[in-house]
Amino acid sequence: MKGQEWYQATDIAQEYDDKRFSQGGRLIDRREKEAVLDAIGPVEDKKILEIACGTGRFTAMLAERGADIVGLDISAEMLGEARTKADAAGVGETIEFMRGDAGRLPFEDDEFDAVIAMRFFHLADTPAEYLAEIKRVSNGDVMFDTFKNTSTRSIYNWALPMGSRLYSRSEVHSLIKGAGLELVGDSHDFVLPYGFYRSLPNSLANVFRRVDTTIGKSPIGDSIASVSYWHASV
Prior knowledge:
alpha/beta
């Protein structure tokens, strides 16, 4: 995986949410959670695995909605933040957090009703292998996101601390088919890059978000969107 040392640094884990999901970044957080729930909700009593759970944004949210959820991440520091967040939300006792490698999942075949992997595949050096492993442990839904190679992100991608793998639509379709999954649906969003929103106060970000959404609904919206949300099933 790309950028493992950077990702696992203590200060990165402590500052991760504040840098990405405060101010205008709250719009990103809201949209990502909406995408997850659209794909796998309702989640009550479902057994769900979150791969690369990071600071537990989705893990805690799904636990609050009654999911039986496992959060797996390679970073002990990120898992520490996730446990703190879950405890603050009152769901710490209902979530199992595990440190592990997404390429060798320590679970049985078909163990989960759904598997999600957000902010993961842009770091994957062997995405086909990871998706095959995800498919192995799911008996239902698979949901993940990717960054698009035709977006503005391609201009500055080289400057990001971890870099990013950028995908074409056809490449993701091929990965899904190769893993033995069926594509259920996809959506594409954020013409303006994430970094732009994070630099804005929330009130100003809302103005740009309305413009962004309008462009996104136009005939060229999907082709220039920076992020894609994919929903597949076994």
